[in-house]
């Protein structure tokens, strides 16, 4: 199993259990994490905060990976996520996440996604 595949599995486990510890364990001690905000989280404490915040945004969430590839120390994952926000609204959005791999650990994580879904949740 590649580091990218381990990451995808650990993320899905964190989403279903609401416990990011297995996911955080895949991160290097000097990891950096970023999303569409201007903030960058650093180190394993930053990774813990990043993933707790992510999970805390949702009542339920599940990511389905549609494509992934790992080569040359980088992993790329394309995904769709579906769930419920804390306020009960349904949400469905998609994006791409990139990891830089350092000695079998996640040395950097960057994610890019459809942030409009959070402003105007999908309506039936």
UniProtKB/TrEMBL annotation:
Residues 1-21 are annotated as: Disordered. It comes from the Bacteria. Gene3D superfamilies: 3.10.450.50. Residues 1-15 have a biased composition (Polar residues). Residues 13-106 form the SnoaL-like domain. SUPFAM superfamilies: NTF2-like. This is Ketosteroid isomerase-like protein. It comes from Deinococcus radiopugnans ATCC 19172.
């Amino acid at each position: 199993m590649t580091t990218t595949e381990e990451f995808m599995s650990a993320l899905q486990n964190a989403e279903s259990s609401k416990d990011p510890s297995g996911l955080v364990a895949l991160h290097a001690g000097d990891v950096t994490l970023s999303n569409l905000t201007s903030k960058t989280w650093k180190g394993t404490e930053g990774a813990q905060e990043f993933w707790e915040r992510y999970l805390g945004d949702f009542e339920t969430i599940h990511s389905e990976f549609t494509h992934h590839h790992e080569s040359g120390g980088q992993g790329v994952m394309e995904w769709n996520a579906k769930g419920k926000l804390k306020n009960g609204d349904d949400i469905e959005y998609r994006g791409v996440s990139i990891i830089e791999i350092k000695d079998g650990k996640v040395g950097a994580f960057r994610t890019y996604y459809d942030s409009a879904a959070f402003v105007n949740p999908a309506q039936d």
